[in-house]
Amino acid sequence: MVTCLVIKCKAALAWEPGKPLAIEDVEVDPPKVHEVRIKIVATGVCHTDWEYLYGQGMKVRPFPLVLGHEAAGVVESVGPEVTKFSPGDKVIPLFLPQCGECERCLSPKTNHCRKNWANMQVGVLADGTSRISCKGQQVYQFLGISSFCQYTVVPDTSLAKIRCDAPLDKVCLLGCGVSTGYGAAVNTGKVKKQSSCAVFGLGAVGLAAVMGCQVAGAKRIIGVDINPDKFEKAAVFGATECVNPKDHKKPIQEVLAEMTDGGVDYALECVGDPAIMTAAFESTKDAWGSCVIAGWTETGMMNVVVEKILMGRTLSGTYFGGWKSVEDVPKLVDDYMNKKLKLDEFITHNLPLDQINVAFGLLKSGNR
Q: What protein family is recorded (predicted)?
């Protein structure tokens, strides 16, 4: 089905960095070749969205733009040459594509497809333009998605079709944070049964990492966070104990080493802070300790003592939890529907689009 109508709708627009989002009337163009237009039903508010608008850890991207990249919706229309989607399909847009044809897609070693990658990183689609405009001005699509808009257009290689009975206000979380943290433990870290783990940062990504460690059969899962209000929720996801670095005079890596007779088997960093990344790495046991970096920063530099690598520790990073996005996200939805994966427990608030700045405030305060 090919449509030629522009859709007028609402979006939370970032006109410039450091300023609250503005609810604006926007126009969303029809999908072009190999593109799909989606009605966004639900979107999560990810720390990466906040960080780009207010923080320092992201590379510069052009404004104005519509943020949001963790969502679920329904296909409204499809462009020419789209064969895998039809109007009415339930879908999850993906900031990580999977074309299924490139060397990376065909390799089991990585999920890092680069189809349309460079363009989507700067907020445009394959032809170098976005499909959203406001007051006659092009609006850039954050990571090629822009889910803080009632409608958006994405490439058909950056979209997962999911089962029709999935609740979109829950499975939207699989578009980023939950998949990233969970996969950091089960895919990248390959956490083993009866192992000890430390998860640094107990936001959504960290809680998902805790859940992954529990599913993998870890016997000891230590949550690390400076906000003790998060400890009760961490226990729901499988944390066996939690530690607040502020309660100790020693560096947290030394505290963990004392707690675990030399260090944990696995450490998962879910904050995106280079200093915490170093602490996580140094909290692992020499000879076989493994640290996975899941927290996001594009500009930070991590300090690593080479001897700690030479003594047998490993350090790795994960992007979208190592999942092959198009094929694996529907499986994660199935796991949720079959009660093998928690999602409801991550949700603390449900807010309408016009309260997006309230949502950002809750995110930054940790009351989420």
A: Belongs to the zinc-containing alcohol dehydrogenase family. Class-V subfamily.
Q: Which domains does the chain have, with CATH numbers?
A: 7-22+44-57+67-177+322-365 (3.90.180.10), 189-317 (3.40.50.720)
Q: How many residues are given for the chain?
A: 368
Cβ neighbours around 32 below 10 Å, total: 18
Q: Which letter does DSSP use for residue 77 in this model?
A: E
Q: Which residues of 165-182 are buried (b: 16+ CB within 10 A; e: fewer)?
A: ebbbbbbbbbbbbbbbbb
State the Cα–Cα distance between residues 271 and 292, nearest whole angstrom.
Answer: 12
Q: How far apart are CA 134 and CA 121, in angstroms?
A: 20
274: preceding bond cis by omega (within 30 degrees): no
pLDDT in tens, 166-186: 999 999 999 999 999 999 999
Cα(23)–Cα(73) distance, integer angstroms: 20
Q: Provide the b/e sequence for 290-314 (b: ≥16 CB within 10 Å).
A: bbbbbbbbeeeebeeeeebeeeebe
Q: What's the pLDDT tens digit per position in 38-90?
A: 999 999 998 888 888 887 767 778 899 999 999 999 999 999 999 999 999 99
Structure token pair of residue 352 = 């309408």
CB 66 within 8 A of CB 141: yes
How many helices (H) and strands (E) the chain has is answered by 12, 16
Question: Could you give the CA distance from residue 24 to residue 351 in angstroms, rounded to a whole number?
Answer: 17
Instruction: Find the distance separating the first CA and the last CA of the chain, reported in whole Å.
Output: 40
**Angle ∠(262,224,280) on CA atoms, nearest 5:** 50
CA distance 146 to 135: 17
> Is residue 113 within 8 Å of 102, Cβ to Cβ?
yes
* The pair of three-digit structure tokens given for residue 359, joined into one six-digit string: 């949502």
Assign 195 to helix, strand or coil: coil
Rounded Cα distance between 156 and 341, Å, is 26
Mark out the alpha helices in 200-353 (DSSP H runs). 204-216, 231-237, 252-259, 274-282, 306-310, 325-337
The number of C-alpha atoms within 13 Å of 294 and in the hemisphere containing its C-beta is: 41
Determine the Cα–Cα distance for residues 179 and 348; give it in Å rounded to an integer: 18
Rounded to an integer, what distance in angstroms lies between the CA atom of residue 206 and that of residue 181?
A: 6
CA 147 – CA 141 distance, rounded (Å):
9
